[in-house]
Design brief:
Blueprint lengths: L6 E3 L1 H11 L11 H9 L2 E2 L9 H10 L4 H9 L4 E5 L3 E5 L7 H10 L9 H15 L2 E2 H4 L13 H12 L2 E7 L2 E6 H4 L11 H16 L1 E3 H7 L4 H7 L6 E5 L6 E3 L1 H4 L10 E2 L10 H8 L21 E5 L2 E11 L2 E9 L5 H14 L4 E4 L5 H14 L6
Parallel strand pairs: 1-9, 14-15
Antiparallel strand pairs: 2-4, 3-4, 5-7, 6-7, 8-10, 9-10, 11-12, 12-13, 13-14
Length: about 400
């Protein structure tokens, strides 16, 4: 039974709480750096698409600015600070969260499979364990090959086995190398104090629901469930036992819960201006993005080209705490190409130009070229603004 909300929030209050919780309002914690961003968010989604950079690199960039890409990778994958597992999707997770995903490992173990069946799984798994024990961290290719030679999901026996061991917690992906997972025995990769599955399902779920609420600032039941891909019934079972408090949000029309620490002080500070990965946790939940920001967005990478509206990897523009445009970027040599741009009026022109120039510098580009803008008048204004903010060419 849901408690009556103790507090009513305006839609703007909720939006600012969400922005601060996600690290876009107020001074960024540069001392904590990328690892601080990961701990704050609780999960950073991975994806194969790389345009300006891969999504897990874009997420800390969006909050911290031009942190070096090599530094991002080192922050994730060195000194046993993180691991990869199934959260919102395949995600980088703080290593401290290892025990709290034991509920998912147990569920997969009980189910007996995820995607593939393997007739001699026990024998192949034993061989994988022996190789990792003897030779240390290895990719699937180094273990004996990831594919059978067919389509990408036509996995080899070794790949099926090592992914099963990852699902059930005997093996950990503690690094990506050239985008390949590097597998290691969990007993070696997870610090000893964290290497256990002693927590029951309820304790795991309480932690993950509470963490989602903290990372979101204020959220509906569906928002809380979506963050780590829990079922609604799992959220319902533990929500009363989390620190989250019921609130009412203007215009949401659904019960909501907020992080009490977020309610303790009003969100203040500087808004970040940046381009966002479509897989950024601020916007990865499309219904929430529409509710909080009034902004409809979807990834069109897998939409046939003639049916795309905004482009292959359209990145929303965050400025002044609102989503005010989007751009489909690409790189050609030392030029960042804005293949398609849309903006919510003239107030978005200067932020769009600033975000494009900053992103270009971050990925080593010296120029920005706009190919198409859906508003001719705004296109002229954007070209003029870029001319004023782009660095002068070197002699």
């Amino acid at each position: 039974m849901t408690s009556a909300p103790a507090l009513s929030l305006s839609a703007d209050d909720a939006r600012r709480l969400a922005l601060r919780a996600q690290g876009f309002l107020g001074a960024p914690d540069r001392r904590a750096g990328v690892r601080g961003v990961l701990r704050r968010l609780g999960a950073v989604q991975l994806d194969t698409i790389s345009v300006l950079a891969r999504s897990h690199e874009l997420v800390p960039y969006a909050r911290l600015g031009a942190v070096g890409r090599e530094a991002v990778e080192a922050a994730y994958w060195s000194e046993r600070h993180a691991f990869e597992y199934w959260s919102h999707a395949a995600c980088v997770l703080p290593v401290e969260e290892w025990p709290f995903f034991s509920f998912r490992r147990r569920a997969l173990r009980a189910r007996g499979r995820r995607w593939h069946d393997l007739a001699e799984r026990d024998a192949v798994c034993a061989r994988v364990r022996d190789r990792l024990k003897a030779d240390g961290p290895l990719t699937a290719s180094e273990l004996g090959g990831a594919k059978n030679g067919g389509v990408w999901w036509d996995w080899s026996e070794v790949k099926i086995a090592v992914e099963w061991l990852l699902d059930t917690g005997e093996v950990v992906c503690a690094e990506r190398r050239g985008w390949k997972r590097v597998y290691d025995l969990a007993e070696r990769a997870v610090p000893g104090t964290l290497f256990h599955d002693d927590l029951d399902d309820a304790e795991c779920l309480r932690r993950l629901v509470g963490q989602a609420g903290t990372a979101l600032g204020v959220a509906t039941r569906a928002d809380l469930a979506d963050y780590h891909r829990l079922r609604g019934a799992q959220v319902d079972a533990v929500l009363p036992d989390t620190p989250l408090v019921p609130v009412e949000v203007e215009g949401w029309g659904k019960p909501a819960w907020a992080d009490p620490a977020a309610l303790a002080s009003p969100p203040r500070g500087r808004h970040r201006t940046t381009l966002l990965s479509p897989f950024d946790s601020l916007i990865w939940d499309r219904p929430r993005t529409e509710r909080v920001f009034g902004f409809t967005h979807r990834l069109e990478a897998y939409v046939p080209r003639p049916e795309r509206v905004h482009g292959y990897f359209a990145m929303p523009l965050l400025a002044g705490g609102r989503l005010v445009g989007r751009v489909d970027p690409a790189r050609e040599g030392r030029t960042l190409v804005a293949r398609q741009v849309s903006m919510a009026g003239r107030r978005a022109v200067a932020p769009m130009a600033a975000a494009l120039v900053e992103a270009a510098a971050w990925v080593g580009c010296e120029d920005v070229r706009v190919e198409r803008c859906d508003d001719a008048a705004l296109a002229g204004a954007l070209h003029a603004e870029l001319a004023t903010v782009l660095p002068a060419p070197a002699d």
